[in-house]
């Protein structure tokens, strides 16, 4: 029984995870399964871009940091009203396995596609940050709540210009961040059409790759397992959070 339990845990961690569903304007959109390199299994007719597998991105300078491993353009942009919440549902695999990790931030970006998002290279998009979650007041990382199938929410700024945007939502797992290059990145991209917006075009933006450095304070934490220092005042990577005005 003990061996079975250990085996199950190893299998769960090996699977890691993906954004399984996203809720926009009270409509639930289910993402495609990873295609595992089989082009015949490419099915990205919804707003969530398909990836090759559920494993993390470890190379911070890889083009895969933009939207996930070998992500496939989505054919559809889902409507979302400016000023409303987007809800993300993570799975630790394909069939109802919970998210396995518990340490690290959850960050959401948006970037204007300046046209149809299905035709844009995500590495060229200028992303601005719309949400960031790390530790809660009780000391638990928000990421840890995903083990109980909790969802993550981010609000589309009410003042951004209407149009086609790519949402880049990611989990950063820090359990090996005491080593340079130890961070695990799980980015996922969703095509949306913002409706009822204002006239703002956020300027504090980054591209991926390029938005992070492997020795940024929120990515390389050499003292994270030090009993006296650890992770106390976590510094989020990337640009400042965009504030609608």
Automatic annotation (TrEMBL):
The signal sequence is: 1-15
- Domain Auxiliary Activity family 9 catalytic: from-to ranges: 16-234
Q: Which reaction does it catalyse?
A: [(1->4)-beta-D-glucosyl]n+m + reduced acceptor + O2 = 4-dehydro-beta-D-glucosyl-[(1->4)-beta-D-glucosyl]n-1 + [(1->4)-beta-D-glucosyl]m + acceptor + H2O
Principal localization reads secreted
Q: What class of enzyme is it?
A: oxidoreductase
- Where in or outside the cell is it found? Secreted
| CC terms in the record's Gene Ontology section | extracellular region
Look up keyword DNA-binding and say if it applies: no
Keywords per UniProt: Carbohydrate metabolism, Cellulose degradation, Copper, Disulfide bond, Metal-binding, Monooxygenase, Oxidoreductase, Polysaccharide degradation, Secreted, Signal
What the entry lists under Pfam families is as follows: AA9
Tell me which InterPro entries the record gives.
AA9, AA9_LPMO
Its required cofactor(s), as named, are: Cu(2+)
Q: Which PANTHER family match?
A: ENDO-BETA-1,4-GLUCANASE D (PTHR33353:SF10), PUTATIVE (AFU_ORTHOLOGUE AFUA_1G12560)-RELATED (PTHR33353)
| Protein name per Swiss-Prot or TrEMBL | lytic cellulose monooxygenase (C4-dehydrogenating)
Q: Which organism is it from?
A: Wallemia ichthyophaga (strain EXF-994 / CBS 113033)
């Amino acid at each position: 029984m003990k061996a079975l339990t250990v085996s199950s845990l190893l299998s769960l961690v090996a699977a890691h995870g993906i954004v399984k569903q996203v809720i926009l304007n009270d409509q639930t959109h289910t993402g495609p399964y990873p295609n595992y390199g089989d082009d015949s299994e490419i099915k990205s007719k919804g707003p969530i871009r398909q990836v090759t597998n559920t494993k993390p991105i470890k190379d911070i300078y890889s083009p895969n940091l933009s939207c996930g491993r070998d992500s496939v353009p989505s054919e559809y942009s889902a409507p979302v009203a400016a000023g409303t919440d987007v809800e993300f549902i993570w799975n630790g695999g394909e069939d109802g396995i919970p998210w396995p990790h518990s340490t690290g931030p959850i960050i959401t970006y948006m970037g204007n596609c300046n046209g149809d998002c299905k035709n844009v290279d995500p590495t060229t998009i200028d992303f601005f940050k719309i949400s960031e979650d790390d530790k809660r007041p009780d000391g638990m990382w928000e990421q840890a709540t995903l083990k109980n199938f909790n969802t993550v929410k981010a609000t589309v700024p009410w003042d951004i210009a209407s149009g086609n945007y790519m949402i880049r939502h990611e989990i950063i797992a820090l359990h090996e961040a005491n080593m340079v290059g130890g961070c695990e990145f799980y980015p996922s991209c969703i095509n949306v059409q913002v409706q009822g917006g204002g006239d703002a075009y956020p300027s504090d933006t980054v591209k991926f790759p390029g938005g992070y450095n492997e020795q940024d304070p929120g990515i390389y934490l050499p003292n994270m397992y030090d009993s006296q220092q650890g992770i106390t005042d976590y510094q989020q990577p990337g640009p400042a959070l965009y504030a609608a005005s």
